Predict the structure of Mannose-6-phosphate isomerase.
Amino acid sequence: MYKEPIFLHPEFKERIWGGTKLKKIFNYDIPSDTTGECWGISGHANGPNTILNGPLSGKTLAEAWEQHRELFGNEEGEEFPLLVKILDSKKDLSVQVHPDDQYAREVENQNYGKTECWYVIDCEEESEIIFGHHAKNKEELTSMIDRGQWDSLLRRIPVQPGDFFYVPSGTIHAIGEGIQILETQQSSDITYRVYDYDRTGADGQKRELHLERSLDVTTVPHLDPDLTRESYLEAGLRFEKLVGEKYFTVHHWDLDGKSNDLIPGKYTLVSVLDGEGLVHIGSEDFSFKKGDHFIMPATVAHFKMSGKAKMISSRSNK
């Protein structure tokens, strides 16, 4: 039985829009100069993480979920429900939208749709995202897409470090160039491209769009989520609740000193954005540093942390 954090080896994805900031910021050993994504906590078939420590060292998170559900509070579900990524957008990502659970099951034969959220780690000046659209109804949305009226259709929002966005399924969105974010999402890899700036792939052809399915799943009119960020301090750890909704609850942790007891519940996912410190479980100490990703399993009743670090934590709400 695990009485320690489960540290995970990140998986990297090369993307047409990726760059080198994952190495510069987190000192990751990235595969190329077009590395767009670090999958830090993933049980998804397209990139499951390998466990680095403890009795299951060398196994994947997917295998741990399948064979040792006690680590996750015996939560139900065929697949590990969440996926945590860090993205580096050297160039604009495609304008895209994701389906909800029902559409994913009925059309894609997948367990999960894709609701996600973004915490902006860093960005260049005047960076912006696309978040939503201006169409009043489905007919207007279809017409504006058919006519390529992208400047009129898409909502552009400036961003700065520390910003947070909740992106429910059905939301048209895109991360702009020069932005690094931590994304917490359902464990899904379904993306429908609405527009891709007429870019070509490695084969010299324009990248595929998915307009029919995009129109099927897009929420019209666009609705901005109603979020209130709540912050409170306990000993040396400041908690800021970023979102708590159907699929996940996400907090920003700012550690400066030593925390009180923390309870993982079913289990808690943690990604270290900056700094370093120790996790204290009984008489044992476990070190962590910037760029680490780990899960505190349900088999740990409580733990403390000490050091100086900034982290994003998340929990499944299934």
